[in-house]
Design a protein that fits this description.
alpha/beta, two-stranded antiparallel ribbon, 13 strands, disordered C terminus
Length: 466
């Protein structure tokens, strides 16, 4: 089933911006070497230093590149649209001003994340390379490269779960906490660094129950990068009120190193380091936490039907859980990331990308180590008719290309390709109808005739122009 509004996104290269020359020697100086009237020299110097800092800031460079990158993306879409006539895996992209605007918003957000203090230093690359090589050797020895799913050891349901009730903006929820229990294998590189994140060893989750319904149907929702700090925002992102109206309870676990589990200045900062072992450990722990939560729902809450959904980084987690857990009602991967090394290669500034290539930090070894947290390296256990993917054709963050790879690997299940960027799903009517259909079908909920499009049925052979 494909609900289509257009085509796939374009991976474009980044270019260096030349540094602005220092004009300070010529400011405020008159013949004879005397400074002329005007601002005090110390203030002029401060202004010049500030200007140089702004120009050299990677966030500024990203903003300046945003327009050209979007133009390049749109041009690439037009070139590839012709391929849709002969290749049914290529989706046509309507290169409209609206799509370009959403792609531009994505580029601006990407630029905003590029804080210079978060970039790796030259001395960080060699240790990261050595860790990857050590991890690859261990993974090969233990057979995890041949059987990535065997890396994930299931843990029992938590026996120390505790909760407190909260209420905000007409939405009531419980804050559930329990010990994660996950840790890297003792011989794994990066173990000591990962276990030093003390706050990360406690799982927090927002539990929002559907009022007036028996607690039998549950959707476990994995949030995206940078989320997990504001329950109201997360509950709205997953449209908890709408799910409640359908009789489905919602639980949103906070991802490792996010929200109260974080230890950096930026939520999720320590998850996205140049050491690809860190991001691998983060995803593996997220998967373990979600699986323990599912066991808790079934054994303690008496859940009879449990589905998983995820957004962006959470889409990766949901897809992995669907490859490891049996008897899930559905899996909904929204704007999913499925290949973190490729995402790092895509978004690294040119100088960092060049250094990473020199040390082999983002190359084949990273791909091999990350295969244990790649849904593309495992088979999905959820039946094909209950697999769902939605993705933005103008997505410049996780990119439609990553969603397309998962769609092909999952044997082309139901797909909603909306005309928009990464965050555009929130306003997309096509996505809302698609998720409603996915949930109502998977949980066998009667359609609501009062909602437009609630009875729309889409088959895997459909191509719907939104």
């Amino acid at each position: 089933m494909i609900a289509i509004e257009a085509e796939r996104s374009h991976l474009s290269s980044e270019e260096h911006l030349s540094a602005t020359p220092d004009p300070s020697e010529e400011l405020g100086v008159v013949p004879g070497g005397q400074r002329g009237p005007g601002l005090p020299w110390s203030i002029v110097g401060s202004l010049l230093n500030g200007a140089r800092s702004v120009v050299g800031d990677p966030r500024t460079a990203g903003l300046l590149r945003a327009g050209p990158r979007v133009a390049q993306f749109v041009a690439g879409c037009r070139q590839r649209n012709s391929l849709a006539e002969t290749d049914d895996t290529v989706l046509r992209v309507p290169t409209t001003p609206g799509l370009a605007a959403q792609a531009y918003v994505d580029e601006v957000l990407i630029a905003a994340f590029r804080h210079p203090d978060l970039f790796p230093k030259e001395q960080d690359f060699e240790p990261a390379s050595l860790e990857l090589a050590s991890a690859r050797s261990l993974f090969e020895k233990r057979g995890w490269l041949d059987d990535p799913a065997s890396y994930h050891t299931p843990l029992p349901a938590p026996d120390d779960a505790r909760s407190t009730y909260h209420h905000t903006h007409s939405i009531g929820y419980e804050k559930l906490s329990f010990t994660s229990g996950w840790e890297p294998y003792r011989e794994e590189p990066g173990r000591q660094r990962w276990m030093a994140h003390q706050a990360n060893q406690t799982v927090h989750a927002f539990v929002a129950r559907a009022p007036g319904h028996t607690q039998k149907k549950w959707l476990v929702c994995a949030h995206g990068f940078g989320m997990g700090s504001k329950p109201l925002m997360d509950l709205r992102a997953f449209r908890a009120s709408r799910l409640h109206a359908m009789g489905v309870n919602v639980v949103i676990p906070v991802m490792p190193l996010h929200g109260e589990r974080s230890s950096g200045r930026v939520k999720g900062e320590d998850l996205m380091t140049i050491s690809m072992v860190d991001s691998m450990h983060g995803v593996a722990q997220a998967v373990s936490d979600v699986r323990r939560l599912i066991k808790w729902l079934r054994e303690v809450e008496g859940a009879e039907e449990v589905g998983v959904a995820g957004l962006s980084l959470g889409g990766l987690v949901a897809a992995l859980v669907a490859s490891l857990e049996d008897d899930l009602s559905c899996v909904v991967a929204g704007i999913p990331v499925v290949d973190l090394p490729d995402l790092f290669r895509r978004h690294s500034p040119p100088d960092i990308a060049a250094t990473a290539r020199r040390y082999g930090v983002l190359g084949e070894v990273a791909d091999q180590v990350h295969s244990v947290v790649s849904p593309l390296a495992m088979e999905c256990n959820v039946p094909s008719e209950r697999r769902y993917i939605f993705a933005g054709l103008g997505d410049r963050m996780s990119s439609f290309g990553q969603a397309r790879r998962l769609w092909l690997h999952w044997n082309r299940p139901s797909l909603c390709a909306y005309t928009g960027g990464h965050v555009g799903f929130y306003w997309s009517g096509a996505v809302k109808r698609f998720v409603d259909e996915a949930v109502s079908t998977s949980f066998q909920i009667a359609a609501d005739p009062s909602r437009p499009g609630s009875e729309v049925s889409m088959s895997s052979s459909d191509r719907r122009q939104g």
